Every structure is written in structure tokens, then in C-alpha cells.
Amino acid sequence: MQNLHELPKLRDSLSYLYIEHAVIERRDSGLLVLQETGRTPVPVANLCALLLGPGTSITHAAVGVCAENGCSIVWCGQDGTHYYAQGGGETRKAWHLLHQAKMVSDPVLRTQVVKKMYEQRFGIKLDPMLTIEQVRGMEGARVRNAYREASASYGVDWQGRKYDRTNWQKADPINRAISAANAVLYGVCHAGIVSGGYSAGMGFLHTGWQLSFVYDIADLYKTEITIPVAFQTTAEGETNISNRTRAACRERIRETKLLTRILPDIDALLAFEEKEDETEFEDDAFDPADYWWQPVGAQVVEGVTDDYYDT
Question: Counting CB atoms within 10 angstroms of each CB, which of 36, 54, 55, 114 has the fewest?
């Protein structure tokens, strides 16, 4: 097993650990991972996200020590693909969530984020005067072109993105491959989003769905990962296309180190910068009564706004 003291980074201040086929127990103030290969102690104090894959069991005490150290737990599919559930969080403050809500609620800021998503995805600077509807149309044209290019490159017939959610086998092999690859990508993006304290439901281009932001972020990587993987896998044969595509997509995600890129990409898109006063609360110093919301311009006296109470 790798040296778990040298954990990969989701971002400079956020590390994660993926574990599968193991029993996880508490050992003193850390974790003990029991596998066929042996026992491995895991320091949890600086661990922000624990990703539990297939065949993993975790004790009540182990969950408790994760909670005590502000380490979120994400139950996911193999290699982080597919998102099932989460527990706790790696931060006791909601700066990422509040910042996301601010950006998605302001039409001007929201449009800026949508344009930055397009620019990151296709490497083209957009006219500041373009509307979201125009950007959406340009993105659709770019994606259709990406499908055509992949079709020509891999020699796979392409008749457009057509599939029926109620009849999986009705779709042709390439459409089934694309759907399978996208499902894997959505799982990885979902795990990264919740590990960073962002909301999966507050999307910028997509809206109205529980996973709108997941779809937004996944779109950043489709032309790089899922589209070429789906076409290449289909070109290699149509037998067992879904399972083969999922395996190939997992491998491509590892090769591109996608999980290490998701949160820095989100921070850049939302123009989020960590501030000195946004560090973790010290347990002994933190008092929720000290933190009140108040309208702009309202004065706070001893934690109470004078707009609503006599002071």
C-alpha cells in the first residue's frame, strides 16, 4: 500500500483518501485500515475527505473520529465513480456554499461564470456582450462538432445524441457508451463538489435539477474524457459496451488526475479566494451566537442587529 502520509491533493488545503475492500476502525485519534495486505494506520487530523469504495465497512467509532476532525465521508463507486451519499463535512463554515449562492443569484455574476466555463472548456475568449442564451447555442454547436470529429477520428458511425431513458437497449452502441461514460464522470464530479462544501443543486448553466452543478462541472471535461473514451471503446468492439466504457473511463480519469483538478477549477470559475478570516473555527473559540446575518449597513451590537432589536 502507498504511504498514506503522502496524500494526493484535491486542492492545496484539501486532501482526500480513497479506500476499497477494507474494514476501517478507530485507532487512538486516527483510523486503522484492515485489508488482506495488512493493517495501515491513517492520520485523520489533516484529512478532509474520506472516499469509501466497494467492499468497505466502517465502524461507529471510526465515523466519530472523522466527525471530530472535520473529515467528510463520501460513499462512492469504484475509484470514486458514482456518488451514493455523504456524511459530515470538512469545514465548519459555509463560505464555499455562500459564495456559490451569491454567484448563482446575481444575473451578472452568473453570466460571467457561464462564460468562464465555456472559455475553459474550449479555450476561446468570448465577447462580454453575449447573453447566456447565445453562449448556450455556441456551446451546443461546439459539442456537436466534437462528436463529429470523434466519429471521423475513430471511424464510428454517428447519427446524433439519441437515447431513451426507459429503454436502454434501444440506443445504438455509441450512445450507450457515452451515457455510461458520463455517469462515471458525474459520480467523480459529485464527490469532488460535496467534498469542497459546494452545493450540487445550484447550477449556473443547468438549473432546476438536484445535480445541476454536477452537470455544469462535468461538462468542463466531456470533450477531454468521456467523448474520446466512448468513441474509442466503441471502435474496439460493441460487446459488453457499457462495462468496458466504464472501466476505460475510470482509467482515463486516473490518468488525467481529474479529482485533483475539480476543486481548483471550481474556485477559479467562481472567483473564490480563501481569506485569512475564513479559516477553520477553533473549537474553544467558536460561538455561533457571534455570527449573525444582518442587512447591508446594519450595525451589530453584541451579536444583535439594531434593525430588529432595541439595544
Answer: 36
